[in-house]
Amino acid sequence: MTHPKLTLVDHPLVQHKLSLMRDARTPGPDFRRLLREISLLLTYEAARDLTLKTQTITTPLTEMEAPMLAGADPVVVSILRAGNGLLDGVLDVIPTAKVGFVGLYRNEETLRPVQYYCKLPPELSGRLVIAVDPMLATGNSSAAAVDLLKEAGATDICLICLLAAPEGVACMAREHPDVRIVTASVDSHLNEKGYIVPGLGDAGDRIFGTV
Ligand code: URA
C-alpha cells in the first residue's frame, strides 16, 4: 500500500548521503553530520507550500515587490530521541520555527509506542507542523505522535523521515492519510525485530553513540 501524500526525495545529493549513512562503517560524527544535511534537504520539500506575500524592498538598484514568508511561523516537533538528529537541519532552513518535543519509546515486545513526554508550542492550528523522526518503521510511534499533534490542534502536518518501511507507510495511510510524508527512501520490509531492511540499524544508537 502506498500513501496519497508521500514525497520520495530521490535527489542525487540525498541518495548519496543516505548511502553513506547506511554503511555500517560510517563513524558517529559523520552519521550525525549527514543526517543534519539530509534533514535540511528534506525540509525544502516539506516547506514547499508555505505562504508567501510580497513586500516592497529596495535592492542596490531599484525598488521591487519581493516574495517573503507570511503567516504564523512553522513548528517542528522532534519525536524523541532520534528525531533530535533531524531537528537542527530543519532549524538551519527555518530558523524562526518554534520547537516541540514528543517522547515515545517502543515497547520491544509489543512494538507499541509508550508516551513519556510531551511539550508543544501553543496554537498549532493553521500553521505548518513538521514532525521529525528518522525511521518510519511499524508506523505506530509516528501515528501516535500525530494523534497528539492533532489533539493539540494541528491541522497541517508533515512527517519528515529519512527512511520508511512499507509497513509504516501503510500504517500512516490507514490512520493519517491527510498527513504528508517526506522521505528519502521506502525500503524493502521490516524484520522480525521491527528493524527496517536494508535500513541503517538503530538510528538513535548511531546518532548518540549508544551502540
Ligand atoms: N528504529 C530504528 O532506529 N531503526 C529501525 O530500523 C527501525 C526503527
TrEMBL record:
As to how many cofactors bind and how, the note says:
Binds 1 Mg(2+) ion per subunit. The magnesium is bound as Mg-PRPP.
* A single Gene Ontology CC term: cytoplasm
The record's keywords, sorted A to Z, are:
Allosteric enzyme, Glycosyltransferase, GTP-binding, Magnesium, Nucleotide-binding, Transferase
The answer to keyword Glycosyltransferase applying to this record is yes
Does the keyword section mention Transit peptide? no
The annotated pathway is: Pyrimidine metabolism; UMP biosynthesis via salvage pathway; UMP from uracil: step 1/1
What are its E.C. numbers?
2.4.2.9
**Catalyzes what?**
UMP + diphosphate = 5-phospho-alpha-D-ribose 1-diphosphate + uracil
Q: Provide the binding site for uracil.
A: 196, 201-203
Q: Please give the cofactor(s) recorded in the UniProt entry for this protein.
A: Mg(2+)
Task: List ligand-binding residues for 5-phospho-alpha-D-ribose 1-diphosphate.
Answer: 81, 106, 133-141, 202
NCBIfam families given in the database record: PRK00129.1, upp
Q: Which family does it belong to?
A: Belongs to the UPRTase family.
Q: What does this protein do?
A: Catalyzes the conversion of uracil and 5-phospho-alpha-D-ribose 1-diphosphate (PRPP) to UMP and diphosphate.
Q: What is this protein called?
A: Uracil phosphoribosyltransferase
Q: Which organism is it from?
A: Roseinatronobacter thiooxidans
Q: Which gene encodes it?
A: upp
